[in-house]
Amino acid sequence: xxxxxxxxxxxxxxxxxxxxxxxxxxxxxxxxxxxxxxxxxxxxxxxxxxxxxxxxxxxxxxxxxxxxxxxxxxxxxxxxxxxxxxxxxxxxxxxxxxxxxxxxxxxxxxxxxxxxxxxxxxxxxxxxxxxxxxxxxxxxxxxxxxxxxxxxxxxxxxxxxxxxxxxxxxxxxxxxxxxxxxxxxxxxxxxx
Length: 192
Prior knowledge:
By secondary structure, this protein is mainly alpha-helical. Helices cover 59% and strands 4% of the residues.
């Protein structure tokens, strides 16, 4: 497994030798990629933003270079960056029979399966009020126990008509009791 060496000599020959070692390690590791998990590890190992090899090369070679060698080191790091990115892309887009080919094929078929001309699914606006939700839960509990539900003005009218109307008919409002001006309820005499 390749580790980025610290450079003490920033001459063109030393940079070229370090770059060749890095490219050989890249080639060996790219040929060892067999599965989907290895593909992800390979990509993260070489292109990772925090601890990827390219990031380490930038830190160890370019940032640590003396002022007079920064130009040569920067050119070499940019060449390595282009070569590593090209190799990683080649592994990701490998020919048929490798791991990356089925991944790319399923990605294309998934994009083709979505018909963008069809209307999208509508999501309901807002949410159910907590009181209504609680009432629906209570109704569901009673329905599970075998009770039936009924609602609406027809049920309420029947209840009022059958239960309360005989009593209400016998009561009347009178405002002229004793001339006090205060009204009261009294039972009206039924005519038989």
